[in-house]
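Encode chain A's predicted structure.
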Amino acid sequence: MSSFPPVAPERPVQTEPATAAHSVLDTALAELAEGEQRWSLVTMTGRRTLLDRIRALTGEYAREWVEVAARIKGLDAASPLVGEEWLSGPYVLAAALGALSRTLESLEHGRSPLDGATFGAAGNRVTVEVLPTGLYDELLLSGFSAQVWLRRGVSPAAAKATAGLAQLDPGRTHGIGAVLGAGNITSIAPLDTVYELIAHNRVVALKLNPVTDPLRPVFEKIFAPLIELGAVRILTGGAEVGGRLVTHERIAHVHMTGSANTHDAIVWGTGADATRRKAAGEPLLDKPITSELGGVSPTIVVPGEWSSADLAFQAEHIATQRLHNGGYNCVASQAVIVSAEWAQKDAFLAALAEALDRAPRRHAYYPGSDDRMATARSAYPDARRLGAQGERLLVTGLDPAAAEPLFSSEYFAPVLGVIELPGTGAAFTRAAADTANERLTGTLGVNIVAHPDAIAALGADFDAMIERLRYGTVAINAWTGVGYLTPTATWGAYPGHTLDDVQSGIGVVHNAWLIDEVERTVVRGPFRPAPRSILHREWALTPTPPWFVTNRTAATTGRRLTAFAATPRWTRLPAIFASALRG
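Encoded structure for chain A:
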């Protein structure tokens, strides 16, 4: 989630003054209309060549991208936290471009992108294994896996037949798509642009969030081949420009990343008229819109017998889920659900408080953060203030049956609450899933932390909890952010939201195999890092992940992973492993 500024109030487009910004916008859209015709004529080979070229340019300008992002976020250039900008910036874009290029290669040769995929089952749903996809994944993400769950009734044969989406008929384009970029994770806007172009065969007018406007020169260098073709235009400006863009007659579709409030301002307008429109089911926006809107993401901690090392590691894990990118993430954990009867509950909460307190200090770069923190402090005056200057809040004593503000307001700031529920075993997992589903706003992502022995003891009840959770990404002993970093995984809310109850959004992105009719992605990781994982027979070689806020070599590892994603070579692996093992 990011707080994209609300659109301007409703007004007839044709009566607006012909400002310079409007002229730039109108010219860009006219050029895209011409570019759409050129894009429709580009062969599958040509499209793959374009993606490969953009991937190479991503590697070429990756350092500049990261330097600009670090300045936006107030990071010291020497800080390991710069690794976040490598991984969630150029790394994931380069990886996605490589995966999409391979998808187009399959289609070019008359094959489904899912030919050779491993299908499985989860209850009455078919699953597709999307991680690992090859030996590189098995080495670099040892112990991690991910499956895309298809919607009920979709067979492997049907999935194979429809994989490819709009690229199954590449000559048929679908107009101009407006993409409203996020202001927090810097790869969101580029990734959404590529997905709109490939998955939906629409040329793209990308409107950057003002927070990321300084990245426009970098993005224009990376997307130069598509800009020259007339298939992409990158725009900047405030709410007025965004409002004019989404209502422009040339725009066929809108995709946004932001808040539900911003979504509703775009779809219904603002003020009393918006209330009337929403009640009457009369949207102001006269075109389709998809969205990714965040929410209150939970982490469910399944009770078990943990060692002191397990307690410390998982405390850092959950602290990372909250504090990565300073807490300004759409899937930042905001509510930790624990068993009140867990014998190690107090020890775990003490370790969690210590991890939150000791995590590196961050600049509060995102607009409105101070106000949102003040709101949280006002709602919870007894919350523990952690961090060097008390800039983080740990809220305990929450009533799971009450209308707690923390359950419905995405603070988008370093605020973490703890919900205690009765029960252990299957009784707890059912109650935890129901609390997450029914009490917390949003369906973007949920994390589950569980000892392997507890998973084994629960057996079918653990699988039932996963199936019961209505979330677009479910991460088991991993952060849902791993799903974001996996190009072949889907990213978006659980299906079923509507314009008048949008919650975490409508539709999915990423999805490099272009799979249709998806329900969710389920990510799994090791409970322990290497070498402890190996000593406990988890057979995972991954040390402390580079996205942990406590990882000491995250910047070096992220830079080396980005170079590998842009140009994969076996010779790059030893340096990656050497840096990762020192993290």
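Residues 490 and 511 are 5 Å apart (CA to CA).
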